């Protein structure tokens, strides 16, 4: 007989202890000071930029951002590999366990959604007549609906891209009609959401829990956390994953034909294929480019934050293959590996600087383009200088 309440309590306490242990290594006094100063400067620049805006399509852009964070509503189950075997016949007894996991995940996702709304609050107060309290209540309701649908998709009926796209589209329409105060159309969306919820619940009752899928989702979230922590400290529990990325085959063919140094070749392929390094670079670059077009001034500060976040998280690329026995076959010194890593990271920084500069030139002109390029390069040079000093100390 298993008590789902006590099981969740033990797992949750162990999870919080692990997060706190790694948090002490990541958020030290120096990093907190930098984050505090960066957030303060960014808030002041952002507020001044919003005050200078005369027009902004807030009712069109905000629903897509709110819907993006509302649609992704996975449940942290804290499952272990052995649970697939031992808990399979105990599904009914584990309902309190999964209920508490859903409540915890709900508040975590809701906290993130509220942070996003607070970031948009200056724009909301200036370009929308809807009450912020009504929007926050709507976020709570919509988050609960999305979590209910996604839990049934992940745990029972299976996950597909088309239902995910439909759910995202319904969230966008819901927030749009809410912001423009079209309550009649919003009522139609609510009726459709109720129908979808009833349909998903009816299908979910016919099948049992998909333990393999739940375990795979939980391991993916755990490894994503470990990869983030690995940028600050070594994580012994991190598992490496490799992705094919068939659409980048032409790049790999060019790498095979170019006679670059062994470690440089290794780091370049690792950046494109291993973990989520390339995805991280693409997401932060896309976010920075969007805000370059959105903000009327002060884009250099936001670009600095994006480039710093990219460079810091890519530092774990250097130790990705640490301890691999095949590296002992390379008749090369450790300094060669360090030099190759510096070249690859600097090339990534130049690429990001060029992308941000092109966006700045299109949106703001030559002066902003030059200042953006300079800011990004200085950020990467400072990070590389830190890496060099750390290498000398080692």
From TrEMBL:
One of its GO terms (cellular component) is membrane. InterPro entries: EcsB_ABC. The keyword Transmembrane helix applies. Keywords: Membrane, Transmembrane, Transmembrane helix. The keyword Phosphoprotein does not apply. Coiled coil: none annotated. It comes from Anoxybacillus mongoliensis. This is ABC-2 type transport system permease protein. It holds the Pfam family EcsB. The chain crosses the membrane at residues 30-49, 55-71, 103-125, 131-149, 161-177, 183-200, 277-295, 301-320, 341-363, 369-388.
């Amino acid at each position: 007989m298993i008590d789902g309440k006590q099981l969740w309590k033990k797992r949750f306490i162990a999870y919080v202890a692990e997060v706190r242990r790694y948090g002490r290594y990541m958020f030290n006094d120096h990093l907190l000071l930098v984050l505090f100063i960066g957030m303060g400067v960014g808030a002041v620049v952002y507020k001044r930029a919003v005050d200078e805006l005369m027009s902004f399509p807030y009712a069109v852009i905000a629903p897509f951002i709110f819907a993006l964070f509302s649609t992704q509503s996975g449940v942290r189950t804290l499952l272990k590999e052995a649970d697939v075997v031992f808990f399979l016949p105990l599904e009914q007894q584990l309902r309190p366990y999964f209920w508490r996991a859903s409540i915890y995940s709900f508040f975590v996702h809701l906290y993130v959604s509220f942070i996003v709304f607070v970031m948009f609050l200056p724009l909301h107060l200036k370009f929308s007549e809807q009450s912020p309290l009504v929007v926050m209540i709507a976020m709570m309701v919509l988050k609960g609906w999305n979590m209910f649908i996604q839990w049934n998709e992940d745990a029972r009926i299976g996950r597909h891209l088309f239902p995910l796209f439909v759910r995202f589209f319904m969230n966008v329409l819901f927030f749009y009609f809410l912001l423009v105060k079209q309550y009649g159309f919003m009522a139609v969306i609510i009726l459709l959401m109720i129908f979808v919820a009833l349909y998903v619940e009816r299908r979910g009752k016919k099948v049992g829990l998909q333990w393999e899928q739940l375990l795979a989702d939980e391991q993916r979230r755990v490894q994503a956390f470990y990869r983030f922590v690995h940028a600050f400290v070594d994580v012994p529990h991190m598992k490496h994953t490799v992705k094919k990325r068939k659409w980048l085959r032409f790049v790999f063919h060019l790498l095979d034909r170019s006679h670059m140094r062994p470690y440089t070749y290794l780091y370049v392929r690792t950046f494109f294929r291993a973990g989520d390094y390339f995805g991280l670079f693409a997401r932060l670059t896309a976010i920075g480019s969007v805000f370059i077009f959105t903000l009327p001034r002060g884009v250099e500060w936001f670009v600095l934050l994006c480039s710093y976040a990219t460079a810091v998280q890519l530092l774990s690329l250097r130790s990705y293959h640490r301890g691999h026995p095949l590296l002992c076959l390379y008749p090369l010194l450790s300094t060669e590996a360090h030099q190759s890593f510096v070249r690859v990271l600097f090339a990534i920084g130049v690429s990001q600087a060029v992308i941000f500069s092109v966006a700045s030139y299109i949106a703001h002109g030559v002066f902003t383009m030059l200042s953006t390029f300079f800011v990004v390069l200085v950020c990467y040079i400072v990070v590389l200088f830190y890496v060099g000093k750390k290498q000398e100390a080692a």
